[in-house]
Amino acid sequence: MKQLLSATLDGIDAKPVDVEATFTKGLPAFGIVGLASSSIQEAKERVKAALLTNGFSFPPLKITVNLSPSDLQKTGSHMDLAIALVIALQNDPTELDNLYVFGELGLDGRLKDTRSIFPILLSLKNQNLVTKAMVPVESLEKLSLIPGITYIGVETLSEAVAVCKNEQAPKEVKATPIEGDSVEIGPERFHFLREYPEDFHDVKGQEVAKRAALIAAAGMHNMLMEGSPGCGKSMIAKRLCHILPPMSLDEILQANQYALLGDEEPTFKPLRPFRSPHHSASKPSVFGGGSSQARIGEVALANGGILFFDEFPHFSKTVLEALREPLQDHRVLISRVNSKVAYTTRFMFVAAQNPCPCGNLLSSVQPCRCSDIEIKRYKQRLSDPLLDRIEIYVQMQESGPDDRPSVDSASMHQKVIDTFCRQMERGQRRLNGKLEEREIESFCRLEGEAEAVLHKAVHSFGLSHRGVANVKKVARTIADLERSDSIEKAHLLEALSFRRRG
């Protein structure tokens, strides 16, 4: 009995699958067992055609292919090559231990890439389960970004058989360079792009909001902008993704893994994701779900980047309240009868809202048409526990004819990169906005005068324990922007100025 290794996705994690084949006496037949999906059952015809067109003749025996473990649902056409090889090499003494095999077969034996190969191999590598894999040549460009795996690239089934029999040397694989610039901090390299298709130079006026955006980007802090329609809330949000901190290789790979699982085309660029669901989006589309198989949602696709909610209060109450968990725990668990999926949600949350239903409450020119009850009902859609998870609140200024551009994205991005380097060189593994409780105590210590100011603020503003932690994190980022090793009184006062009142 010949055996090879392949794998299947179970939620967002890959599970190894043993592919076994036996030839037994009986009526000639070809069957696949082991909870195989329809895409794998259809592989019988693809495998049979590919083997026959590449010189293999089927013996008059019953061929049974087993996919183990048998209680795990298997899906995907990437198992075609493994199934074909265990049949073609059945009588060959070649040892294929610890070799994972992936690839979809064409009827003529050509090998094709599939969307699931990259997330499967990345998950297997993160679990330290794979060191060597045979894959289609057209998959190598993106797969070579995953370090620590030796790849054997093949173009056809006959070439794969020849490599397994040591009759042909495998193709040499060169690592694909990542686009853009990079900065090296200790043993790790971080990557970023200096491309600004949407520039902060287009934002006229709004100096306070631009300062808040710089602080939020430098520390990946959650931010809420409130202002009249047309004052620039969405403009600022859309420009934020181009000035975010550099990304590690692991972050780039995970972002593209989630993109592939979300049926989107990956780019493998060091550009953090930007997700902006419409306010009519359902809870499953935002957080993930599905009737039988749990699928990832917008909060997972935004991991490491920005999740932007425009018209914040107009989202459904169930979506707004469910947002608390990913903002606080940076993790979401989706449970279904047949599957459970847990995924990381360490994103920067950015929201924009009008001050009232008509939008003119803060305007000195346009009269507000809303009644007190309408305004109160509008405000009450956002609960205090949800708002308490947002570190930076900005009340936008009114637009005026004298407003002028003051700063561009390139200069803001450079400040963010410098601040990022300070955080990493300090020994942090997370940016200021995503620090855990014990890390806040270690990295966000206050000077004596700043400690006294915070103590007064706790009593004056009724800050919760979470609110105090948020102020400390924002003050730490402001101090980093000012290249200060300690958090001083001025830094803390500016952080307090971005707290929401009432």
TrEMBL record:
Superkingdom: Bacteria
Gene3D superfamilies according to UniProt: 3.30.230.10, P-loop containing nucleotide triphosphate hydrolases
Domain Magnesium chelatase ChlI-like catalytic positions: 199-399
Protein name per Swiss-Prot or TrEMBL: Fis family transcriptional regulator
Pfam families: ChlI (PF13541), Mg_chelatase (PF01078), Mg_chelatase_C (PF13335)
Coiled coil: none
InterPro entries: CHLI-like (IPR045006), Mg_chelat-rel (IPR004482), Mg_chelat-rel_C (IPR025158), Mg_chelatse_chII-like_cat_dom (IPR000523), P-loop_NTPase (IPR027417), Ribosomal_Su5_D2-typ_SF (IPR020568), Ribsml_uS5_D2-typ_fold_subgr (IPR014721)
NCBIfam families according to UniProt: YifB family Mg chelatase-like AAA ATPase
Domain (Mg chelatase-related protein C-terminal) ranges: 408-499
